[in-house]
Amino acid sequence: MRVTSLEVESRSGGVRVELDDAPFGTVSVADVAALGLVVERRLSERETAALVYRAEVFSARTLSLTMLSNRALPGAEILRRLQRKGHPRPAAEEAVGALREAHFIDDAEFARHYARTRAVRQRFGTRRLLAELRRLGVADKVAEAAVKQALEQDGVDESQVLREAAEKKARTLHGLEPETAKRRLRSYLLRRGFRGEGLVQVVREALGR
């Protein structure tokens, strides 16, 4: 195949490549140099395959940055989304790895922010926070350290969060039979990640019994 056009894209910062007068894909400026791409050069099958791969990596990186512009995400979640969009795993992994090196992806910082906001705004307990972070692909040690740091640095008292969650839910249970209200409130708090001996006492106090 013959390279018939190389044009810089202002929006993506990449170089749009045409082969045999037909649009092919976009690669980085560094890829153009590494692959020795110049107009009128003919590419072997091996060189064309390499160009296909570089275009996949660039596309995966561009999509990853779009995801991150909407909200912070951990690397594993971005990788899953890229594969769902059809990007081959090797290209997706390389794109995510490059963004990690450039500090666009930071699982620890993501986990700290996630734990901080969910604990305060949604009144999640430690167990729920850890479960959510693991579901998003954050490694156990990273998740555990992040939750601990986030709560300690922001002075978030989990027992206070538990009481606030219990009191808010209890207001929706008035009128129910005492045992029914107690069962529902306890189940609600367990789903939100709260555990411990103090749970029974908090349930009793929240229901006024």
Offer a quick outline of the entry.
With 209 residues, the chain is mainly alpha-helical. It has helices at 29-35, 45-70, 75-84, 89-101, 107-121, 126-135, 140-153, 158-170, 178-191, 198-206; strands spanning 3-8, 15-19, 22-27.
Please write out the topology.
Elements: E1 3-8, E2 15-19, E3 22-27, H1 29-35, H2 45-70, H3 75-84, H4 89-101, H5 107-121, H6 126-135, H7 140-153, H8 158-170, H9 178-191, H10 198-206
Antiparallel strand pairs: 1-2, 2-3
Number of strands: 3
Which band does the percent of strand residues land in? 5-15%
Unreliable stretches: none
How would you sum up the global shape? elongated
What radius of gyration results from the CA coordinates?
25 Å
Helix share bin: 55-70%
Please count the helical segments.
Answer: 10
**Widest sheet: strand ordering:** 1-2-3
User: How many strands, what sense, and barrel or not for the largest sheet?
Assistant: 3 strands, antiparallel
Order of SSEs, N→C? Answer: EEEHHHHHHHHHH
